[in-house]
Amino acid sequence: MTDPAALREAWGRDGVACLRGLLSPEQIADATAAYEWTRDNRGPGFTTMGGDERSWQDLSNPASYAAYDGMLRRSPIAPLLARLWGGSVWYMYEQIFHKEATDNFTPWHQDTPYMPVAGAHHAVCWISLDPVSREATLEYCLGSHKGPVYNGTSFKPGDPTDPFYKAGDLPRLPDIEADRSRWPIQGWATEPGDVVLFHPSVLHGGGAPGPQGRRRTLTLRFFGEDATYQARPGRTAAPNVPGLHDNLRDGDPFRHPVFPKLA
User: Fold this and answer.
1) Where is this region: Disordered (predicted)?
2) Considering its fold, how many domains does the chain have in total?
3) Residue 108, domain extent
4) What CATH code is carried by the domain that includes residue 202?
5) Count of Cβ atoms closer than 10 Å to residue 39 Cβ
6) Is residue 52 in some structural domain?
7) Which of 2, 71, 127, 226 is most buried by its number of CB atoms within 10 A?
8) DSSP state of 17
C-alpha cells in the first residue's frame, strides 16, 4: 500500500499498514548491512529476552547514527513519511531483534511509553530480513494508537501486564492474549522488501518463529514536525542520547542535533 491517499486513510484509521515490496534488492542489502553492524557492535541496550540466548535485541546504540547514515539516506522511507505527514522527517533510533528456534512470544505492548515523545507524526518501520508466516508475525490491535497510552510491560515472566513504571498514572496494560476476541487484531505474512509501518502507540505483540524458524528484524523509528517531548514516570528505554532529558521540558519540540533530518 504505497498509494498516498490509501496509506493516509489506513494510517489515520488503523495506525498500521503493510507496504508490500517497498524496498528494492539494493535497499534490502542496505538494511541487512545495518542489522549486521548492530549485531556485531553490541551497544548498552543489548538484552536477551527472558534469558533465552536464541532471542535477543539491541537498540539505540549511539554509534549507529554514523553507521546507518548512508542506508537511511538511500531508503524510500523518509520521503514516504514526508508525503504521509506533509512535513519534515527526522530519524530517531534503531532496534534489532533476533529470534531463532524459539517459541518466545513478545508480550503485547505499546512503544510510546518507553520513549519521551508524543505526537501523531511518529512511526516505526518493521523490516524482516527473513520470510515470516502469518502465524509467526508481529500482530497489531487496529486503531489502538488513538489511546489510551498504557504503562509499558516489564516483560516479567508469567505476568505480561506487569508495569514497567512503578509510579505515575499510566493505566495498566490489558491482557490481550487472554481474550483475543475483544480486540481487532491484524498481522501480515511478509517477504524481504515488505515494510510494516505503525504508530508506536499501536498495541502489538507476538512474533514467535517456532522451533524451526528464524526471524531477523530491523526496526527504524522516525518523527515529524508535531513531535513533542513527553516526560515519563521514570527513566525511558530509548533513545540513548546524552543530554536529551536535560535540555527538554514537557511540550517542547522534540529535537536534538544527533537526530538527522532526512526529508
Assistant:
1) 232-263
2) 1
3) 4-224
4) 2.60.120.620
5) 14
6) yes
7) 127
8) E
List the pLDDT tens digit at each of the 263 positions of the chain. 568 899 999 999 999 999 999 999 999 999 999 999 999 999 999 998 767 778 899 999 999 999 999 999 999 999 999 999 999 999 999 999 998 877 778 899 999 999 999 999 999 999 999 999 999 999 999 999 999 999 999 988 889 999 999 999 999 999 999 999 999 999 999 999 999 999 999 999 987 777 778 889 999 999 999 999 999 999 898 999 998 999 899 999 999 999 999 99
Q: 25-40 vs 64-74: helix axis angle to the nearest 10?
A: 170
pTM more than 0.90: yes
**Residue 81, beta-bridge partner list:** none
Cα 113 to Cα 86, 201, 225, 236, 243, distances in angstroms? 25, 8, 20, 8, 19
The continuous run of DSSP H or E covering 97 comes out as strand 89-102
Query: How many other β-carbons are positioned within 10 Å of the β-carbon of residue 50?
Result: 12
Residue with cell 531483534: 97
